[in-house]
């Protein structure tokens, strides 16, 4: 707010001087200078916020009364040397980074009721319907308010630990003791645009990307895991090149593995069409 006020202070002063200039207000050099500054600020604002303005138009106007499926997750990039650890999806036939959807906590029902948010009941795991996941349907007019609530971090999960534990420790891919504590660094939040989903309807996906910080106790365990990667089908180690090609091995001229699109988003820290 202070920065905005500072930017518009000068053209306002110039306009006031133009009012008292001996020349005509519209012909005053002060007025012309003020107009140039205002137009420059406007162009810079549109350039910096074009995507936000487009998002506002789509949610508040174009898809105002249409339900949009929102899925908000976190992903780990786990790297040893030049390869990355990916795990087999529990619901799909592809590999992806360790991670999963954030969950809501008691109290989230208030915002759900206020914004008429509907949980996605179509998604199932091996234990049944995935409950409390931030995988929901929201009317377009309420999407921006939903993200405002999400950004407050109130009444929702904020740590990426749970899925790390479920996908690597509970499955015994990694030993629990050495990985009972992990360090990780937040890298970036990657958001897709509102896209047409394969299952029908409109959807948007959000991924918080973290890098695992590997300590000296954990490094040899991960290196050993790399050696034994071919012994199981629950996980793989792949290079960045394989990820960029979503599993295609240029040398072998074939798909060694099927890799999910969002693996590439996490790798590049940006959305891209496949």
> Ends: how far apart?
39 Å
Main sheet properties: 7 strands, mixed
- Helix fraction by DSSP (H/I, runs of at least 4): 25-40%
Kindly report the average pLDDT value: 89
Number of β-strand runs? 15
Question: What's the short version?
Answer:
With 274 residues, the protein is α+β, with helices and mostly antiparallel strands.
Structure description:
- The protein is of the alpha+beta class.
- It has nine helices and 15 strands.
- The strands form four sheets. Strands 1, 5, 6, 9, 10, 11 and 12 form a seven-stranded mixed sheet that branches. Strands 2, 3, 4 and 13 form a four-stranded antiparallel sheet that branches. It has a two-stranded antiparallel sheet with strand order 7-8.
- The protein is elongated, with a radius of gyration of 25 Å.
- The protein starts with a helix and ends in a 6-residue tail after the last helix.
- About 2% of the residues have low confidence.
Ordered list of secondary-structure elements with their pairings:
Blueprint: H1 2-20, H2 29-48, H3 50-62, E1 67-77, E2 79-80, E3 83-88, E4 95-96, E5 99-101, H4 109-115, E6 118-119, E7 124-125, E8 128-129, E9 135-139, H5 143-152, H6 161-169, E10 183-191, E11 195-196, E12 202-213, H7 219-227, E13 235-239, H8 240-244, E14 248-249, E15 254-255, H9 261-268
Parallel strand pairs: 1-12
Antiparallel strand pairs: 1-5, 1-9, 2-3, 3-4, 3-13, 6-9, 7-8, 10-12, 11-12, 14-15
Helix pairs in contact: 1-2
């Amino acid at each position: 707010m202070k920065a905005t006020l500072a930017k518009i202070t000068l053209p306002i002063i110039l306009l006031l001087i133009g009012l008292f200039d001996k020349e005509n207000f519209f012909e005053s050099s002060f007025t012309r200078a003020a107009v140039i500054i205002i137009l420059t600020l406007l162009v810079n604002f549109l350039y910096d916020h074009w995507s936000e303005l487009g998002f506002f138009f789509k949610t508040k106007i174009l898809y105002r009364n249409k339900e949009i499926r929102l899925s908000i997750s976190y992903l780990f990039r786990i790297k040893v040397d030049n390869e990355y650890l990916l795990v087999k999806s529990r619901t799909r036939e592809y590999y992806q980074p360790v991670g999963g959807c954030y969950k809501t906590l008691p109290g989230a029902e208030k915002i759900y009721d206020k914004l008429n948010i509907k949980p996605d009941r179509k998604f199932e795991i091996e234990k049944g319907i995935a409950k409390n996941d931030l995988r929901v349907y929201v009317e377009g007019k309420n999407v921006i308010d939903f993200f405002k609530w999400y950004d407050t971090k109130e009444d929702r999960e904020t740590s990426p630990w749970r899925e790390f534990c479920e996908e690597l420790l509970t499955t015994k891919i990694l030993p629990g003791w050495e990985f009972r504590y992990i360090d990780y660094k937040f890298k970036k939040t990657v958001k897709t645009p509102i896209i047409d989903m394969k299952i029908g309807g409109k959807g948007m996906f959000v991924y918080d990307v973290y890098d695992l910080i590997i300590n000296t106790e954990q490094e040899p365990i991960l290196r050993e895991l790399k050696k034994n990667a071919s012994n199981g089908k629950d996980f793989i180690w792949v290079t960045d090149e394989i990820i960029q090609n979503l599993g295609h091995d240029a040398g072998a001229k074939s798909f060694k593995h099927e890799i999910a699109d969002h693996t590439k988003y996490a790798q590049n820290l940006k959305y891209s069409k496949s």
